[in-house]
Amino acid sequence: METKTLNGELFANMVGGGAARLKSNRVTVNELNVFPIPDGDTGDNMFMTIDSGFSAVAGEREEALGMAAERISKGMLLGARGNSGVILSRIFAGIAQGLKGIEGADVRTFARAMEKGVEESYSAVQNPVEGTILTVYKDAVKAANGAMDESTDFEKYFDDFLKELRESLDRTPELLAVLKEAGVVDSGGAGFVYIAEGMRDALEGGGQSASGDSPVRAARTDVSSLTEDSPFEYGYCTEFLLRFRTEKVGAVDAFDEKPLVDWLNENGESVVAFRDGSILKVHVHSMTPERILAHCHEYGEFLTLKIENMMLQHNETNIRNNYAKPAKPRKRFGIVAVAAGEGIKKTFTDLGADAVVDGGQSMNPSAESFLEAFARVNAENILVYPNNSNIILTANQAAALEKNANVRVIPSRSIGECYAALSLLDTSSGDIDEIEKSSVEIMRSVTCGTVSRASRTTERDGVSVREGDFIGFSEGRIYSDAPTAYEAAMKLIDSLSADDYGILMVVCGRDADTGEAKALTEALGAAHPMLETILLDGGMPIYDYIFILE
Question: What DSSP letter does each residue of 111-136 carry, written as one string?
Fold first, then answer.
């Protein structure tokens, strides 16, 4: 088969094929983890990102390539998770820019769009690092574009593209020392290889939807939470795509959707609304969804529609904490933090966080999760604490998409930095620039250490790590390895010059032994008598202990 022209339907199928191939191999990508603890999530993040893009066009026959690429890009931008997911979304955003307004593309037009993907993805990262997905994609685009001649079809283009993708991936350990030390290739680059393989298969008709290889059985709805006599407190979560219609709004390009969005905010809660060409994506909570739908129907037709009774949501705690609260009056400053573990979430809320987004290592939130949190906070200025280096890019992407508030992402990389910043946060000056600067300065005075179980045997930072042992580490450096979490923690705290600080908070994780945690806190207090030691049940996964020194 020699494909000379790419249309929207074929491109959508290719993206679906890429998502399906990655889904089948995401565990393999997750295991390409540089650090020897079970927190690899690159495969999951990239799959959920590309699947969000494919979901935006799944089930529809969009012939125009430019429109399909734009909708896929928008879906990926909103669904992006983790650094690898954000970079992946920006690659496809660049491709969409290069295909804007095009009905169908020949190979050379598509190749130029792929170059746009290189430019856009590099611009998304403040300090691009070579030896990552950025390099792998860039090298492959350069090789495939350079190999083109008059006879090149899309099959040949993707063959050349894949050949260099794999070769560039194999070279990543030579460009990035941490990969070479760990004996792995870059996980983001590996994920992109699987995506490209699935896209190439789809050219031959061998692709499948992301869910095709592993159908998910719908969970049975638990209706017991709403009886005949139950108070109805939480209303309905309504989501839909509305295509504006000329016969209803006149010239669609000139139509201003702001009055409609304002009406949604006045008549609903937790509103998130984005326009993508002639389509408006809406998320809204309301006691009367039929009223919402009737009003919006005056402007166009529904492409997709979902209504869920929030009383029947499977994760009721999450609904109560994050989605079902009544809208708050608009305030001057709001705070959004990211955390995993009920104890940590409650601590951040007690310290003044208006919304806590579920997430952390191995469970990175999407850009859309942040946008929903921004809507719930309802503030003119919003400070965001991502609390993980793999979430900062996603938070920045969400901040760029937010239109109703001035969002400042404070680049916190740990819950300890967030804890210190929130403890001393002072918004009385009213100056968002000064508040942001103060938060960053406060975080610099904090040191965090972590204890977790080692997932493999390796040698790193002069420490012999054995699989199954516990390791103590801080800022990516391993300081201790021991058979027990207690021993690893004691050695770690000694290595972090704990006596230079005044407070040590011991945050114990979900898998930590309660008795051990109490004994450890007492032992640390005895070994460092000038430190005030505090024990907190954090409940977080992955990490047995997180230590905050301030």
Answer: HHHHHHHHHHHHHTSSS--TTSHHHH
